[in-house]
């Protein structure tokens, strides 16, 4: 990518920082973010030049097999975050704060975020919500913990929102705009906009100085994020906003069937796979 000598850490190979991301917006450079949950895939994405890896609470579904993000815990996500940090060398690693780990109070948020920074080595944390979490954001920033915000469809609030639905239409769009500006003032270094109308996402993007990261928010945001299993074709029923760039499910099925057939027939292992 042409921006590899700027946003992606430069020739020295240093980690991407939040200042790099804000500077990229100032230059009009778009950038990709992708989820990661283990060291091996983190290394692949890092070497491909992805500047930000998100250890999302989506691990609840794609790693642990739940049907929503709500059941995953801090203790579930800490080892995944540590693995992604160990597997990467240049990407900024952002850890999701799971449901119930920060909503109670700013002090609870600080205690949770501190664990991700100290025990897992995360470089930033992400939390969901607008004005109701401003005290949490302000305390985390004052403690030296970078915060990525998340507006629009906030999956941890799916039961209040009435399901996985587009957010920000009508008057709620003005509220989302206000929340984005408040989060910027509170010190957040970026804001995820999930499942909001493209026109609203564009207005938010042009109204704040920190980067916006879209997922189902149209093409005008400063960055885009996808769950890696979605873009690689492992998800059976991907959302409308997902573009699949590979079909790993089919390829994995083919490989596993071929392996099984070779074992049954005795074709594997061959002499080349055997020690004398």
TrEMBL record:
Q: What does the entry comment about cofactor binding?
A: Binds 1 Mg(2+) ion per subunit.
> Which reaction does this chain catalyze?
(6R)-5,10-methylene-5,6,7,8-tetrahydrofolate + 3-methyl-2-oxobutanoate + H2O = 2-dehydropantoate + (6S)-5,6,7,8-tetrahydrofolate
Q: What class of enzyme is it?
A: transferase
Q: Where in the cell is it found?
A: Cytoplasm
- Pathway of action: Cofactor biosynthesis; (R)-pantothenate biosynthesis; (R)-pantoate from 3-methyl-2-oxobutanoate: step 1/2
Q: Where does Mg(2+) bind?
A: 57, 96, 128
Write out the entry's keywords from A to Z: Cytoplasm, Magnesium, Metal-binding, Pantothenate biosynthesis, Transferase
Does the record carry Cytoplasm as a key word? yes
**What's this protein's function?**
Catalyzes the reversible reaction in which hydroxymethyl group from 5,10-methylenetetrahydrofolate is transferred onto alpha-ketoisovalerate to form ketopantoate.
Q: What family is this?
A: Belongs to the PanB family.
Record text on subunit structure and interactions: Homodecamer; pentamer of dimers.
Entry's PANTHER family? 3-METHYL-2-OXOBUTANOATE HYDROXYMETHYLTRANSFERASE (PTHR20881:SF0)
Protein's recorded name: 3-methyl-2-oxobutanoate hydroxymethyltransferase
Q: Which organism is it from?
A: Nonomuraea guangzhouensis
Lineage in the entry?
Answer: Bacteria, Bacillati, Actinomycetota, Actinomycetes, Streptosporangiales
Gene name for this UniProt entry: panB
């Amino acid at each position: 990518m042409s921006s590899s000598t700027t946003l992606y850490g430069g020739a020295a190979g240093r980690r991407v920082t939040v200042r790099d991301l804000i500077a990229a917006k100032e230059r009009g450079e778009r950038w990709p973010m992708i989820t990661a949950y283990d060291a091996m895939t983190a290394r692949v994405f890092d070497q491909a030049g992805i500047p930000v890896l998100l250890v999302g609470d989506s691990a609840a579904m794609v790693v642990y097999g739940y049907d929503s993000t709500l059941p995953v815990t801090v203790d579930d996500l800490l080892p995944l975050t540590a693995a992604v940090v160990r597997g990467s060398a240049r990407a900024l690693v952002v850890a999701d704060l799971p449901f119930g780990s920060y909503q109670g109070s700013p002090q609870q948020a600080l205690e949770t975020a501190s664990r991700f920074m100290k025990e897992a080595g995360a470089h930033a944390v992400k939390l969901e919500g607008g004005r109701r979490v401003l005290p949490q954001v302000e305390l985390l920033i004052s403690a030296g913990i970078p915060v990525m915000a998340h507006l629009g469809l906030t999956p941890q609030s799916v039961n209040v929102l009435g399901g996985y639905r587009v957010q920000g239409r009508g008057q709620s769009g003005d509220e989302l705009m206000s929340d984005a500006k408040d989060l910027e003032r509170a010190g957040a270094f970026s804001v995820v906009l999930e499942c909001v109308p493209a026109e609203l996402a564009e207005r938010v993007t042009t109204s704040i100085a920190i980067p916006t990261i879209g997922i189902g928010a149209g093409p005008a945001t400063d960055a885009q994020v996808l769950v890696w299993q979605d873009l690689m074709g492992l998800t059976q029923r991907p959302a409308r906003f997902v573009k699949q760039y590979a079909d790993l499910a089919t390829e994995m099925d083919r490989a596993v069937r071929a392996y099984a057939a070779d074992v049954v027939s005795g074709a594997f292992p061959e002499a080349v796979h055997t020690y004398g």
